[in-house]
C-alpha cells in the first residue's frame, strides 16, 4: 500500500521518473478485509482513488461498533459512528484489500512517469551518499544492475531490505522481534450465511463487531457490498514457536483454530465451523523497537518498514499511505527543485520529524488496546469492564482505543498533508 501510494503521490506532484521495484513477479492482489478510516480516505480522495471508484462502490459504511464478551456474547459497549462523515468529511468504511491496492495500482498505470519492475529484488545499497544513493537490484532472470537515484524509498514492509542496510550503516540494532501474537483471517461468503438469520443479520448490518476474551479477540465486519463477512482474529502465537519460516505464515489446522476459541459463544463457533478444511492460514504478528532514525542521506523508509504496528487500531495501511503523501509533499517543497542532494536529505529528515511521533503514538495505542482487550479474570479486568459500563451509560472514554471517540477525533481529523505544508519551512530551516 505504501509503495503504490508513494508512486502515485510523487506522480501527482509532477515528478517524471518514478521506478517501483517489486520482488514478486506480479502484484497478485490477495488478502482479506481492511478498515478504511477517514484519515485514509482523505488522502485517497485527493489521489482520485475514492470518489466514484470501485473501492467506494464496494465499500460498506460502518455506522456503529459493538464490543462484546466472547464467551457470553454480552454487549459491553456500543459506539455510534453515524456522525463520522459529518465530523471529519469522510465516513468510516470497510473494504477489501485487493480493491484498495488494485485502485492504487490502476491509478499508477495511468501515470507516464511511473514504471514498475516486477521480479526484481534489492541486493544491496552501495552508497547512501554523499551525493545520490546508489543501489544494486537483480531481476529474477537477469544480471545485477547498479543504479542511482535522487531519493531511495524503502516501502518494503516488516522485512525491509533497505532498513537492514540502513541500520548496518548506522550501526543501530533494531532486529524484528515476535509480539507473541498471531492471527487468522477468515472470509465467509453470503451464500454460506444466508440460511442462518442470526448470521445474515451480522452480514447485513453496518456494524464492526469485536468479541473479546482472555488473550484473544475477533474483529468482524461485512465487506464487498455485504457479500462477504470478514473475520480477523488475534491469539497467542503458539504455532510458530519452533519455526524458522521467513514468511511469517503457516498453514493452519481447523481443529487447532477452533480449540483456541472453544469457550466463545455459539455464534462465533458457528462461523468458525464454516471455514473450509485446508483453508486455514495463520499469520505471525511481528514488530521491532522504535527506530532512532529512519532516514540516511537521500534514503528513507515508510510504513511497516519503520513503524510496524499490531492491527488493533486498524491504522497500518492508513499510516503507510499518510507517510507517502507527506513524503511527496516535502520533497516537492525542497529548495532547488530536487537538484541538491543535501537539500533533499534535509527534506527527508523533515518528513521523519513530521511522522515519527504521530505514527509511534498509534503503534503504542494499538499495543495498549491489545493488552486491555486480552485481560483475564482479576482486578484489572473488573476495572476495564467498569470503564466499558461507564462509556455505555455516560459517553466516557472506551478502553478499546480504536472505538473511543476522543481517539477517533484525534486520528480522523488529522490532515497530514496540511500539517506538512504548514510546518515544512520551519522544520527545514531548523535542520543542519
UniProtKB/TrEMBL annotation:
Keywords: FAD, Flavoprotein, Monooxygenase, Oxidoreductase. Residues 3-331 form the FAD-binding domain. It comes from the Eukaryota. Pfam families: FAD_binding_3 (PF01494). Pathway: Secondary metabolite biosynthesis. InterPro entries: FAD-bd, FAD-dep_Monooxygenase_BioMet, FAD/NAD-bd_sf. Belongs to the paxM FAD-dependent monooxygenase family. This is FAD-binding domain-containing protein. The lineage of its organism: Eukaryota, Fungi, Dikarya, Ascomycota, Pezizomycotina.
Amino acid at each position: 500500500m505504501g509503495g503504490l501510494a508513494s508512486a502515485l503521490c510523487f506522480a501527482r506532484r509532477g515528478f517524471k521518473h518514478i521506478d517501483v521495484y517489486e520482488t514478486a513477479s506480479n502484484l497478485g492482489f490477495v488478502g482479506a478485509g481492511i478498515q478504511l478510516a477517514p484519515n485514509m480516505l482523505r488522502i485517497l480522495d485527493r489521489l482520485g482513488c475514492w470518489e466514484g471508484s470501485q473501492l467506494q462502490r464496494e465499500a460498506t459504511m460502518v455506522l456503529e461498533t459493538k464490543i462484546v464478551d466472547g464467551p457470553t456474547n454480552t454487549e459491553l459497549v456500543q459506539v455510534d459512528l453515524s456522525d463520522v462523515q459529518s465530523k471529519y468529511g469522510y465516513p468510516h468504511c470497510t473494504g477489501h484489500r485487493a480493491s484498495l491496492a488494485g485502485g492504487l495500482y490502476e491509478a499508477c498505470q495511468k501515470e507516464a512517469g511511473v514504471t514498475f519492475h516486477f521480479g526484481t529484488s534489492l541486493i544491496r545499497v552501495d552508497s547512501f551518499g554523499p551525493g545520490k544513493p546508489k543501489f544494486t537490484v537483480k531481476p529474477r532472470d537477469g544480471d545485477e544492475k547498479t543504479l542511482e537515484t535522487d531519493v531511495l524509498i524503502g516501502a518494503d514492509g516488516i522485512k525491509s531490505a533497505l532498513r537492514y542496510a540502513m541500520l548496518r550503516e548506522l550501526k543501530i540494532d533494531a532486529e524484528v522481534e515476535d509480539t507473541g501474537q498471531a492471527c487468522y483471517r477468515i472470509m465467509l461468503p453470503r451464500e454460506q450465511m444466508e440460511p442462518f438469520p442470526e448470521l445474515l443479520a451480522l452480514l447485513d448490518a453496518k456494524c464492526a463487531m469485536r468479541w473479546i476474551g482472555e488473550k484473544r479477540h475477533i474483529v468482524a465486519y461485512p465487506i464487498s457490498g455485504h457479500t462477504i463477512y470478514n473475520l480477523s482474529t488475534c491469539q497467542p502465537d503458539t504455532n510458530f514457536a519452533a519455526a524458522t519460516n521467513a514468511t511469517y505464515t503457516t498453514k493452519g489446522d481447523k481443529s487447532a483454530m477452533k480449540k483456541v476459541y472453544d469457550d466463545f459463544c455459539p455464534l462465533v463457533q458457528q462461523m468458525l465451523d464454516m471455514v473450509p478444511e485446508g483453508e486455514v492460514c495463520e499469520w505471525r504478528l511481528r514488530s521491532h523497537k522504535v527506530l532512532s532514525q529512519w532516514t540516511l542521506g537521500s534514503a528513507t523508509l515508510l510504513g511497516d518498514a519503520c513503524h510496524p504496528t499490531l492491527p488493533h487500531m486498524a491504522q497500518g495501511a492508513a499510516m503507510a499511505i499518510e507517510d507517502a503523501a507527506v513524503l511527496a509533499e516535502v520533497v516537492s517543497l525542497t529548495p532547488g527543485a530536487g537538484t541538491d542532494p543535501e537539500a533533499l536529505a534535509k527534506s527527508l529528515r523533515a518528513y521523519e520529524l513530521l511522522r515519527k511521533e504521530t505514527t509511534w503514538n498509534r503503534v503504542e495505542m494499538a499495543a495498549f488496546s491489545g493488552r486491555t482487550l486480552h485481560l483475564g479474570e482479576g482486578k484489572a479486568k473488573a476495572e476495564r469492564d467498569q470503564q466499558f459500563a461507564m462509556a455505555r451509560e455516560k459517553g466516557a472514554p472506551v478502553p478499546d482505543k480504536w472505538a473511543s471517540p476522543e481517539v477517533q477525533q484525534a486520528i480522523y481529523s488529522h490532515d497530514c498533508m496540511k500539517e506538512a505544508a504548514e510546518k515544512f519551512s520551519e522544520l527545514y530551516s531548523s535542520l543542519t
